[in-house]
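Predict the assembly for these two chains.
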Amino acid sequence: MNDRIRRLRQQSLDAIPRISLERAQLITEFYKSGKAERVSVPVARALAFEHLMENKQICINEGELIVGERGPAPKATPTYPDICTHSLNDFEILDSRKKVSFKVTDEIMKIQEETIIPFWAGRSIRDRLFDAVDEEWRAAYDAGIFTEFMEQRAPGHTVLDDKIYSKGFIDFKNDIKKNIDSLDFYDDSDASAKREQLSAMLIAADSLMNFANRHSDKLRELAKAEADASRTEELAQMAAICERVPAHAPETFWEALQYYWFAHLGVITELNTWDSFNPGRLDRHLMPFYRRDIEAGILTEERARELLQSFWVKFNNQPAPPKVGVTAQESNTYTDFCLINLGGVSEIGEDAANEMTYLILDVIEEMRLVQPSSMVQISKKSPDRLLKRALKIIRTGYGQPSLFNTDAIVLELVRQGKSIIDARNGGASGCVEAGAFGKESYILTGYFNLTKVLEVTLNSGIDPRTGKMLGVRSGDPREFETFDDLFEAFKIQLKHFIDVKIKGNRIIERLWAEYLPAPFMSILIDDCIQTGKDYNDGGARYNSSYIQGVGLGSITDSLTAIKYHIFDKKNFSLKNTLDALNANFEGFEQIRKVLLDDTPKYGNDDDYADDVMRQVFEAYFEQIDGRLNTKGGHYRVNLLPTTCHIYFGSVVGAMPDGRKATEPLSEGVSPVQGADRKGPTAVLKSAAKIDHLRTGGTLLNQKFTPQILADENGIEKLAHLIRSYFKMDGHHIQFNVVTAETLRKAQQEPEKYRDLIVRVAGYSDYFVDLGIDLQNEIIKRTEQGLS
Amino acid sequence: MNGIIFDIKKFAIHDGPGIRTTVFFKGCSLDCWWCHNPEGRKLETETVSVKPGGDASDSRIPARTEVIGRDVSVASVMEEILKDVIFYDQSGGGVTFSGGEPMMQPEFLIELLQLCKENSLNTAVDTSGYASWDDFEKIYNLIDLFLYDLKLMDDESHIKYTGVSNELILENLARLSSMGSKVEPRIPLIPGITDTEENLEAIAEFLTPRKNIRQVVLLPYNRLGEDKSRKFDLTYKAGQLSVQSGDELENKVEIFRSHGYGVRIGG
């Protein structure tokens, strides 16, 4: 890393996330002007975008090579009052909360109070949404049965493909115009609506080009004032680049990066889209430019690295928009889930890793930034070199890159009806979500609390937290004679809550389509231009809606415990168990011990528990997969939690897996924390019993200590472990390096860390089974290894 | 057919090639001062008092009784082994029979080995070599790799530190080698006991005529045996020893390298 990058990186790390009201003020100014009322909604949104791009402050940081910020400065984070109008109390919380805080000045409080709130109250999509949903939805939402992604952030969940590398915005405009010209006002009843949408896209395209030109002007100004000759030349070069892109297709490596970045800023300024935005298969996109520039002698490997690093800093400068309420709990992080994809296969199914893949991996290793996230797609054709290179970064304990199974992703997408070409050109974004890049809107609509539904089932439809009827009457479980009776009751509750969720989703989808179309993003996603429809209204080639199941391990172990102890072994009655749960196991320690220690658990390759998991998966899948959304697409399932398993756990009382009230649920498809006792192969076997190919993504976390990966043997064996999981169609796996701090916690609370494997010497063992001296020795080694 | 084992460990990555499952047989005729698996010595299930995660003085951890060893059928062991076939196939791994001393339950071992071979699994046996040749003769062609412990060349010391003579052990190794079996000698480096230059030189010289043995594994000392002895409330005869430093280890590696052996460290 050279001095320039070190400075830029440090500047990014040091910048304190703070609220900027620039966007809020500009958009309020625009809507107050009355211009919006004279035009259609899409055109109004485009004019609002134009107003933003024309008046946003231009920020060019010292020494940087890629320019453009979402806010007036790094980490100056805009708000989106048109979507979610923060209350003063929200701002106070954002300012003072310990984690993921945003500084708010008194002046900002004043503007928010006097200008922003009075105008947007009742008009923001958040307000409209909570007005529009029915009581049933509201009750389930408040009880923590599900969350709602679109209540304060826009549908995004999409990724760019390769289109910007061969087309400039002038070309996009020509495409749009051609479609306007060919509208059939005689036989197409939607022609008028399409014209409005396409006209909006034209305005949005001009707005982005204008934004780039403003950068160009500013760069020339800076060049004039710059004393350093080489920087002057650089600034002039950057000015020329911003003049060329995004108006024209990029011709150089540098232009390609700058172009993407402008497109990125357009998307995240227009709306606060989930998963920010994402260049997708960056190694593939950049490789032709890299090769051409190197051959032409206008780029060196070193310069390419520097440009990439400067590009990386830009992502880190943009924290996720300030979230509040349940959304802050389900996704409590500055990370905005821009997941760079590397490796994978080409559209004809060949290994797609190239020189750029390894160069970018170097950049990831060196930069060690929270954003962007990164992942490596491993197909059966991927070379071991790629997997091992990734593992060598993972072992440094930075949590990146995560590993994905390309072959599974392709099959998942093809099963959903995508063409094989679109599937191969796709990948995963956000946390683990499979998508057809550049062509799909794959919206996560909310997390779904599977364990809570079981709790409600066990209480005959009542939520024990409030004592109120939350679900439907599904019978008193104390009178059930078989496990199947109980499972049927669970299915009745499950159907009820999924129905409530989907009904709400349909209302919410329409709100976004009607009030907040995204004409700028629609330019970038096929086939919005061709169909003349907005991204938020089914314009994408594929439109999927997801409901993300949370707590698979927790519900499996709970149901397994009931099946095993109550119906099979008849060790105790359901009444007994319910009494123990109601007492949060106080006075029922013996029952809890049996539930924890003497019960089959998911994650041990034990079919007794894993069959229950399959049953839960099938029930969930059956309720959701294939149902229609309002955008011409279908509902699908995936299994991932972000941080929602903690929130969902907080609303669930004690459960038959031995978990006490309010403790976190299991996350992703990982076993309950500490429940897996047979090592990683058993965890992977259990997790692979999920039919991953019928999901749009699953998340599996594994822990390891750095020593296990210290030598080539460890890397080799881990690579085999991953390949085996992927052979079994596993979708994703990520490795969390265990820190000395975690090991100390494991010493204090061994029951929660029973799954933690450490390398002792020439062998590995469960940490909690070791003597205190050996434990301390390993803690010491771990500290040294990580320092 | 049943046998007594005390553990089945999956994702064993230091007991032979690839990802393996290691089955720990209970029972061993040796009584090594530094024994790593003291719970595996007796050829019977036993109930012991255990202080997990600490020693007897640690009052936070209540002692509990634990049954060591399980009487299991060949079929049930095979069922566990076969669960991880996909990992063996991917990694070139397989099954390792360890202990204890697997050769102490030869009939049980043979049945397992035969079934492993029927399932095309790679097999390894981790042995002290202290068993009758008759038993080795019955199984050697079912075993892809012998992980063969060599401790002390001086017989008097061998008797002192392990309780038995090394004569049979060395003879069996020579025979296996001459029959063409793949043998990987493993030398536990016990400070001041087995890791002396004299002993290591003697081992190297003993191996020299066995042309098909070109690689040895050195097992640096670790404190697991001490730790486990405390956990199971047993006497750890080797006492408190310190772990070898990197430089010390390098010298020991050099002894074998100078004799032309490949050396691997660790398990």
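The first helix of chain B runs from residue 74 to 82. Chain B touches chain A at residues 9-15, 18-19, 52-55, 58, 83-84, 86-87, 90-91, 93, 219-220, 222-224, 227-228, 230-231, 265-267 (CB under 8 Å).
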